[in-house]
Every structure is written in C-alpha cells, then in structure tokens.
C-alpha cells in the first residue's frame, strides 16, 4: 500500500453534526452520530481516519466492521474505494450509517450495509477497518481473516496500549504487523494478511 504524506484530520461540531476536516484536498465529511459511535473526536476513530487518508484506498474493496456512524465507510468512499461494506451489530448504527451516507452524497451503489449476522460470504476485501474494543477484535479474528484477500490489510483500533500484546498474540499467525500508532493511550495496529 502506497502511503501519502501524513497530516492530522480534525473534527469540529457544526450544530448537532460533526464535520471532519483535513489539511489536504479531501472532501469534508458531515456526521450526525445519533446514538452510534464514530464522530472523529475519539482517538481511535481519529487514528483510523488518518490511516485511511494516508494510504491508497482508490479502487479497493473496504469492509468497515463495527461501522457505528459510518464515518470510516464514508471516508473510504470519498477516498475512492471501489466498494465499501459497512457492518454493525446495532440496528440503530446501521440506520445512522444510511442517513450519514445520504447526507454526504456518497454513491449508494458502492455502499452495502449489513447486520453482523447477515454478512455476505466471500467478501474478498482488500482492506478491513475495525474500530471496536479489544475483546471483540480477539473474538472476530477468524472472521476477519476469512473476509480479507491474501495480502489484504487490516486496521484495528479501539485498543488500549496495555492490550497490544493480546492483539498481537491473536493475529500474529495470520498477519504481519506493519505499523502501530498511538494517541492518548489508545492504539491502532495495521497488519497485512500473510499469503497462504
């Protein structure tokens, strides 16, 4: 994956909506999180947004597992993803993702939204983002491995710094770790799936 120049994405409150602004030529993202997680303010969301913005997403199939407000799915689409699959176990998060996608005028034919128990088989994703907590990341590791293509890239966040070793133990058999970023006691871990 080709990495772009680093810059910080910032979030600002606009009425009841969140407006994600960055210092590049990327379009802004308007988010109304409703009851779902994902405003851009939390360090874990910010780490994921920055990773997406710094890497080549164009023409990739991206899965946003635990999509919350849909912020990462929408960012991936605005960065040129070929297709994005947004997945969550909370029905209200799925509704909020639909509304935020409409608000941001993303191409709805490139976005599919699913409950965690109705995930299509054979997603053949190039990239999977999962900004959830360490325990579900550990529990879902086999699912994530099946979702990704060989050499696919995973961006895991929602991990406290003292949980890093647990994530490494769980994912090291199937993934090579290529980057770790930290912000305010939280980390994101980037891994590339090993070719089988």
The radius of gyration computed from the alpha-carbon positions, rounded to a whole number of angstroms, is 15 Å
Apparent shape = globular
Which whole number gives the mean pLDDT? 85
**C-alpha end-to-end distance:** 19 Å
Give the percentage of residues in beta strands. 25-35%
Give the tally of β-strands. Answer: 10
Element pattern in H and E? EEEHEHEHEEHHEHEE
Could you give the order of strands across the largest sheet?
6-5-4-7-8-10-9
Structural class: alpha/beta
Walk me through the structure.
The protein is α/β, with parallel strands linked by helices and 196 residues long. The chain is 28% helix and 34% strand. It contains six helices and ten strands. The chain has helices at residues 43-54, 71-78, 91-103, 134-139, 141-147, 164-171; strands spanning 10-14, 17-21, 29-31, 61-65, 83-88, 111-115, 125-131, 148-160, 175-183, 186-193. β1 (10-14) and β2 (17-21) form a beta hairpin.
Topology, please?
Blueprint lengths: L9 E5 L2 E5 L7 E3 L11 H12 L6 E5 L5 H8 L4 E6 L2 H13 L7 E5 L9 E7 L2 H6 L1 H7 E13 L3 H8 L3 E9 L2 E8 L3
Parallel strand pairs: 4-5, 4-7, 5-6, 7-8
Antiparallel strand pairs: 1-2, 2-3, 8-10, 9-10
Structure summarized in a few sentences:
The chain is an alpha/beta fold and 196 residues long. It has helices at residues 43-54, 71-78, 91-103, 134-139, 141-147, 164-171, and strands at residues 10-14, 17-21, 29-31, 61-65, 83-88, 111-115, 125-131, 148-160, 175-183, 186-193. It is built from six helices and ten strands.
């Amino acid at each position: 994956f080709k990495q772009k120049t680093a810059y910080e994405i910032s979030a600002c409150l606009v009425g009841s909506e969140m407006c994600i602004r960055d210092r590049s030529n990327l379009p802004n993202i308007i988010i109304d999180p409703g009851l779902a997680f994902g405003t851009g303010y939390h360090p874990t969301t910010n780490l994921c947004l920055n990773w997406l913005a710094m890497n080549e997403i164009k023409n990739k199939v991206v899965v946003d597992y635990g999509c919350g407000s849909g912020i990462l799915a929408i960012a991936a689409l605005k960065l040129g993803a070929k297709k994005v699959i947004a997945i969550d176990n909370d029905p209200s998060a799925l509704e909020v993702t639909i509304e935020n996608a409409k608000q941001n005028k993303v191409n709805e034919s490139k976005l599919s939204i699913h409950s965690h128990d109705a995930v299509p088989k054979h997603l053949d994703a190039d990239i999977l983002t999962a900004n959830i907590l360490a325990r579900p990341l550990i529990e879902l590791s086999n699912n994530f491995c099946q979702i990704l293509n060989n050499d696919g890239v995973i961006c895991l966040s929602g991990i406290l710094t003292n949980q890093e070793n647990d994530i490494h133990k769980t994912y090291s058999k199937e993934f090579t770790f290529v980057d770790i970023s930290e912000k305010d006691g939280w980390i994101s871990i980037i891994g590339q799936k090993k070719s089988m």
